[in-house]
Amino acid sequence: MLSKDEMISYIEQLADGIDPMTGEVLEKDTILNRSDIVRLFYSLRDYLLNDDKKIRKTKNVLGTFKLSSNVGIAEDKITTIMLFTKRLNDFRVKGTKPISYLSITNWLLKEVYLLVDEKHMKAPSNEGTKIGILYSMRRSSNGREYYVIEYSKNAQQFIVDNLFYGNIC
């Protein structure tokens, strides 16, 4: 059985993305490098350091985007990713980096809520449509038609939920 100090050392190394057995840096795409798992490791370390004291909320160690509360949903129900991201950044925890609309868009592409067609244009997938990502046609002032991806209140809530649980960033 490991001593308390050894357990703390293992947990700290895992939280830092290092294999405690070999000292090698873990691959970025491993589950152990997910932000929610890293926060869990730091909480466990704090628990071990503080014994039976209440587990304190850990700081956002990496300084990545974190919402101060579950806000940022557009009151007008439908919005573009740029306006939505601006709202989210207005409600981020002080001292954390703002999130870019590209981070959210890339995550949606990776999770296949958005697709890229042969013209390199983005559009919602069937799964994206199910969560409320819309593909709307608009007309410019000179009469030219173009498409824009919009996010319903449900899609915005889906993104906020995934930001809260550390799935995006």
List keywords for this structure.
4 strands; alpha+beta; 169 residues; two-stranded antiparallel sheet; 6 helices
SSE order and pairing:
Blueprint: H1 4-15, H2 35-49, H3 81-90, H4 101-110, E1 114-116, E2 122-124, H5 126-131, E3 133-139, E4 145-151, H6 153-164
Helix pairs in contact: 1-2
Major sheet: order of its strands?
A: 1-2
Number of β-strand runs: 4
Radius of gyration based on Cα positions: 20 Å
* Mean pLDDT value: 79
Main sheet characteristics: 2 strands, antiparallel
N/C terminus separation:
36 Å
Going by helix content, strand content and strand pairing, the class is alpha+beta
- H-E order: HHHHEEHEEH
Outline the structure in words.
The chain is α+β, with helices and mostly antiparallel strands and 169 residues long. It has 2 domains: 4-49, no CATH class; 81-164, no CATH class. The chain is built from 6 helices and 4 strands; from the N terminus they run H-H-H-H-E-E-H-E-E-H. It has helices at residues 4-15, 35-49, 81-90, 101-110, 126-131, 153-164; strands at residues 114-116, 122-124, 133-139, 145-151. The strands form 2 sheets. The protein has a two-stranded antiparallel sheet. Strand 1 and strand 2 form a beta hairpin. Helix 1 packs antiparallel against helix 2 (35-49). It is elongated. Mean pLDDT is 79; it is low at 52-63.
